[in-house]
Every structure is written in structure tokens, then in C-alpha cells.
């Protein structure tokens, strides 16, 4: 699914008005109807306090007030006055409302007019939407803080007021919504961790904007959805043999971190590679053979960490390196040798990334189309700090293009930057996966897909989606608190079945 900017959404609005055709007032009515239906169905209250600005977001608020009133709800409207007059559609809805004397309408022109609210009401925030073009200050900012001081649920229309759609809002006054009813498509602002306190649960209101616009308009960012994954998925052919699905190598583990090697190797096996081998420290050999008997093993000459390759790296279909390898000098040299020698894309994670970040000259050795899977701290070590999540996303995109690599920046909505400039946000997964070992599982899964012939871009997007889906199924079965990384592996099979 494409993610559009506030400006593109404005263009989509205009395109719909012209090509459906429909008047902008009718479109507002459609939007208000969708919101009202949701509100009536999902809230038990009888009383609603609706705060409106004087743009089209406020116009939505006025139309919602009328529709809720028609649904026999008690409605009170507060209008934040501004120096400029209302938008055309705001004014039209204001005039309609004016004739309904049973709906009290109050103006807020100064702090003295900030209202007290009945304790059982639900607050509807229709102050500012996608038209926000600067930080809220003065009376608008004070009103936002005032609304946030109440304990009642807040339903934001389109955007929590004060939150920018496509840029950082850090430190700004913003409505803290319990639910956000947003029109047609999710917004970039709802995908970044720094905004987590503001939008609550997001619900998409389908207002039938013209499909012709979204089909023809390119978007930089996308949300990975099931239809994209189904288009990537290649069913296994009936007459296939193990040679058709590649030979994956996992280079992982050191003393005390053999578990990382076990998790990656098992995840790699469970994701469908024809053959899986594990290069592990010599002492880990019995452990890996017990925990993953289906895998072959290359024990290192050294007992406690990995030091040398006794194989040709290009003989494998894919190699994933990093989980639990530590940062011993000889391990660093081995990584350098691998980076210099291999002609294929790698999957690099964890300590492989930490070694690269800490050793001058390594970064530029990363082979083209390699997939790196840093969490935010590893990402900062590699590429430097950023002031906010939006800058981090931009930096990931620009580094991906500059270095011709795929960057999967792990987080609640893992962001995958492609070298062609596109970016994919993943929406599967849950907080139960925020535990040691989850990343090792992901490395194994992506390496497995790469071995099977999926492109590096596909392997990253598909692997991250499947990993999150397996995590969601694990959470459903075991609970977020109790689930562990092994449970993600146990649910990979069911995740495949759900595609
Ligand atoms: N997408 C769709 O298809 C549909 C969209 N619809 C709705 O339209 C909404 C967008 O409406 P909108 O463009 O009128 O902008 P909105 O958010 O109401 O802001 C109003 C004005 O506020 C001002 N302003 C900005 N920042 C400010 C600040 N910090 N402090 C003070 N003032 C500030 C700025 O004017 P300025 O002062 O810059 O002249 C701005 O123009 C959208 O969110 C959705 O609810 C639906 O009705 C139908 C279908
Ligand atoms: K709003």
C-alpha cells in the first residue's frame, strides 16, 4: 500500500472532486458520515464535546456534530477562533449548524474561554488536520494542553491536532488521542516510534477517494501488505528437490552466545532453504548438532569464537553472518576476508555490524545488495546519530542508495530502505518480540529466503513480514510476555500457511 504525503493527499482530494465528480462539500459529508458511523458503533457515550478549527478539519467536526445530533446524541461544539475566516466548507457547515439551535456552539477567543467539560463526555478533536503547516503556539497550543488535561477519551479526526503528517513533531503541543480516525490511507506520522503517545489506535476511514490517483501516482514509501507478500511468494514446485532451494550458511556464535547460532540456524531451516550449514566455534559443535540436527556444521579451528573460513564463500547460495559472533580480533579479520572475497550479497546483523562500525574501512567493503538488519543503536553506530525518527528514515534511504545495499532498520514498524529509493514499512509483529534472540531469528529467515532465489529486496521485505507474522501467531498462542524467540521459529510454518 502506498503512503502519500499531506500534499499528495490534497492532490488526491482535488483529483476526486474533479474526476468522480463530487463537490468538496459532499466529500466532507462522506468523511463525516464515515466518522460518525464509527463513533456511534464504537463508543457507548451519549454526550460529545467537539473542538473545531476553522479549516476543513473543523468543517468535518461541524458535520460530525450535526450527524451525531441526528443520531440522538448530546453534542456541544467549541470553535477555536482565528484571525482568518473559515474555509468555504467550514462556513457552509457552520451555516447548516446555525439552524439547529439545539446544538450549543461556543467560541474560544482567549484563555478565559477555555471550557470545563462534563466528565462523561467523549472529546472529538477537529482542530487541525493535514493542513497543519507550523507548530501550534499561543491559544491553539494552550487549548491542546487544556484538552490533554482531561481524562476523557479523545477521538482525533484525520490527525491528532498539532501532529505533522510527514515531518517530525518532537516537542510540539499535540493532542493525545485514544483513537484516530484517519481518511483513506495511513499517514507516515503513525509509523514512527517518536509519535507513539499521540495517535492511539488508528482506524482508516474509507471515503472512496478516486482510485485513478493512487494508481498513477508514485510514492516513495509503502506499507508492506499481504497482497505485496503474495505477489513475492513462489510456491514450491511438486517435482522440486533440495537443490532447488539453495544452500544457506549461517556464521554465528561464540562461547556464551551459542544460542544465537542455534536460533539463526533453526529459523533458516524452518524458512525453507534446501540445505543449511552453520559455521560455529568448535566447542559449539555438539550443541548445534543436537539443537538443529537437520543442519550441517563447519566447526571453526578455534574453540570459543570463529576465526577462519575452510570453505569457498561463493559456493553457498547465501551467507548470513553476525548473531553472537563477538568482536575478537580474529573474528574481525575473518569478516574482512569474507567482505573482500565474496561476490554475492550477504546478510549482516548484530556483531558483524558492530565490527563494521568500529573498524575503519570496513563499511565500504560491504558487497552490493547486501541486506543489513541494524536495530536503532547499531544503525547510529554505523551511520551516526539523527535528531528524530524522520531524519533516521531519510538517512537510511540515502545510505541505501549511496551504498547500493538494503537496510532493514528494526523497530515496531521495521523500515526497509531499497537502493532505488523506495522504503517499506512493515506492520506485522508485536511488543512480545522485543526480546533477545528475535533478531537472530530474522537473520536466519532472510538468509534462507535469499538462498531460495528471492532477490535481496524481496528477501528483506518478505522475511521481515513473515518474522512479524510468526511473532503475532506466537503472541496469540503464548502471550506477549511469555513468548520467546524459539516460539517465533515454531510459528514460522503457520505464518507461511496464512499468506
Ligand atoms: N483528504 C481528503 O480528501 C479530505 C480531507 N478532509 C479534511 O480536510 C482536512 C485538511 O483541511 P485544511 O487543508 O483546510 O487544513 P486544516 O488541517 O483544517 O487546517 C486549517 C488551516 O489552519 C491553518 N494552520 C496551519 N497550521 C497552523 C498553526 N500551527 N496554527 C494556526 N493555524 C494553522 C492553515 O491556514 P493558514 O493559517 O496557514 O492560512 C490551515 O489551512 C483534513 O485533515 C481532513 O480533516 C475532509 O473534509 C474531506 C476529504
Ligand atoms: K484533528
UniProtKB/TrEMBL annotation:
This is Bifunctional NAD(P)H-hydrate repair enzyme. The keyword Lipoprotein does not apply. Catalyzes the dehydration of the S-form of NAD(P)HX at the expense of ADP, which is converted to AMP. Together with NAD(P)HX epimerase, which catalyzes the epimerization of the S- and R-forms, the enzyme allows the repair of both epimers of NAD(P)HX, a damaged form of NAD(P)H that is a result of enzymatic or heat-dependent hydration. (6S)-NADPHX binds at residues 56-60, 129-135, 158, 260, 324, 375, 440. AMP binds at residues 410-414, 439. Residues 225-499 form the YjeF C-terminal domain. K(+) binds at residues 57, 125, 161. Binds 1 potassium ion per subunit. It catalyses: (6S)-NADPHX + ADP = AMP + phosphate + NADPH + H(+); (6R)-NADHX = (6S)-NADHX; (6R)-NADPHX = (6S)-NADPHX; (6S)-NADHX + ADP = AMP + phosphate + NADH + H(+). In the N-terminal section; belongs to the NnrE/AIBP family. Belongs to the NnrE/AIBP family. Keywords: ATP-binding, Isomerase, Lyase, Metal-binding, Multifunctional enzyme, NAD, NADP, Nucleotide-binding, Potassium. GO terms for molecular function: ADP-dependent NAD(P)H-hydrate dehydratase activity; ATP binding; metal ion binding; NAD(P)HX epimerase activity. CDD domains: YXKO-related. It holds the Pfam family YjeF_N. Homotetramer. One of its GO terms (biological process) is nicotinamide nucleotide metabolic process. Residues 9-215 form the YjeF N-terminal domain. Its EC number is 4.2.1.136, 5.1.99.6. Its cofactor is K(+); Mg(2+). SUPFAM superfamilies: Ribokinase-like, YjeF N-terminal domain-like. The keyword Lyase applies. InterPro entries: Carbohydrate_kinase_pred_CS, CARKD, Nnr, Ribokinase-like, YjeF_N_dom, YjeF_N_dom_sf.
Amino acid at each position: 500500500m502506498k503512503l502519500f504525503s499531506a500534499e499528495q493527499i490534497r492532490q488526491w482530494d482535488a483529483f476526486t472532486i474533479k474526476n468522480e465528480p463530487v463537490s468538496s462539500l459532499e466529500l466532507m459529508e462522506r468523511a463525516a458520515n464515515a466518522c460518525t458511523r464509527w463513533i456511534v458503533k464504537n463508543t457507548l457515550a451519549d454526550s460529545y464535546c467537539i473542538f473545531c478549527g476553522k479549516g476543513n478539519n473543523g468543517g468535518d467536526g461541524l458535520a460530525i456534530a450535526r450527524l451525531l445530533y441526528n443520531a440522538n446524541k448530546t453534542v456541544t461544539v467549541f470553535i477555536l477562533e482565528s484571525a482568518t475566516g473559515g474555509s468555504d466548507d467550514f462556513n457552509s457547515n457552520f451555516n447548516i449548524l446555525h439552524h439547529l439551535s439545539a446544538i450549543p456552539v461556543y467560541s474560544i477567543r482567549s484563555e478565559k474561554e477555555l471550557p470545563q467539560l462534563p466528565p462523561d463526555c467523549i472529546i472529538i478533536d477537529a482542530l487541525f488536520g493535514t493542513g497543519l503547516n507550523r507548530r501550534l503556539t499561543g491559544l491553539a497550543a494552550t487549548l491542546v494542553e487544556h484538552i490533554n488535561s482531561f481524562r476523557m477519551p479523545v477521538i482525533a479526526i484525520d490527525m491528532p491536532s498539532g501532529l505533522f503528517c510527514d515531518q517530525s513533531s518532537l516537542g510540539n503541543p499535540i493532542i493525545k488521542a485514544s483513537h484516530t480516525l484517519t481518511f483513506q490511507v495511513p499517514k507516515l506520522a503513525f509509523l514512527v516510534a517518536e509519535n507513539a503517545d499521540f495517535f492511539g489506535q488508528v482506524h482508516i476511514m474509507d471515503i472512496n477517494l478516486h482510485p485513478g490517483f493512487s494508481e498513477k501516482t508514485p510514492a516513495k514509501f509503502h506499507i508492506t501488505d499481504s497482497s505485496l507478500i503474495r505477489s513475492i511468494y513462489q510456491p514450491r514446485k511438486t517435482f522440486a528437490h533440495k537443490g532447488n532451494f539453495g544452500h544457506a550458511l549461517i556464521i554465528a556464535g561464540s562461547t556464551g552466545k551459542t544460542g544465537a547460532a542455534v536460533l539463526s540456524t533453526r529459523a533458516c531451516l524452518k524458512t525453507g532453504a534446501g540445505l543449511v550449514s552453520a559455521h560455529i566455534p568448535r566447542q559449539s559443535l555438539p550443541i548445534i548438532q543436537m539443537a538443529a540436527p537437520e543442519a550441517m556444521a563447519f566447526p571453526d579451528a578455534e574453540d570459543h569464537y570463529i576465526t577462519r573460513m575452510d570453505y569457498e564463500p561463493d559456493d553457498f547460495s547465501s551467507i548470513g553472518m553476525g548473531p553472537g559472533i563477538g568482536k575478537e580480533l580474529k573474528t574481525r579479520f575473518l569478516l574482512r576476508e569474507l567482505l573482500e572475497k565474496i561476490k554475492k550479497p550477504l546478510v549482516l546483523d548484530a556483531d558483524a555490524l558492530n565490527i563494521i562500525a568500529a573498524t575503519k574501512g570496513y563499511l565500504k567493503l560491504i558487497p552490493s545488495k547486501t541486506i543489513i538488519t541494524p536495530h536503532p543503536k547499531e544503525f547510529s553506530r554505523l551511520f551516526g546519530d539523527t535528531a528524530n525518527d524522520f531524519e533516521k528514515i531519510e538517512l537510511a534511504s540515502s545510505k541505501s542508495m549511496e551504498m547500493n545495499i538494503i537496510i532493514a532498520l528494526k523497530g515496531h514498524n521495521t523500515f526497509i530502505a531499497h537502493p532505488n529509493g523506495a522504503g517499506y514499512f512493515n506492520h506485522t509483529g508485536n511488543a512480545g518480540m522485543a526480546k533477545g534472540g528475535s533478531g537472530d531469528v530474522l537473520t536466519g529467515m532472510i538468509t534462507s529466503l535469499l538462498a531460495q532465489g528471492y532477490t535481496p529486496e524481496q528477501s528483506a521485505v518478505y522475511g521481515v513480514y513473515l518474522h512479524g507474522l510468526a511473532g503475532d501467531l506466537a503472541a496469540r498462542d503464548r502471550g506477549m510476555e511469555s513468548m520467546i524467540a524459539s516460539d517465533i521459529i515454531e510459528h514460522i510454518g503457520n505464518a507461511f500457511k496464512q499468506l
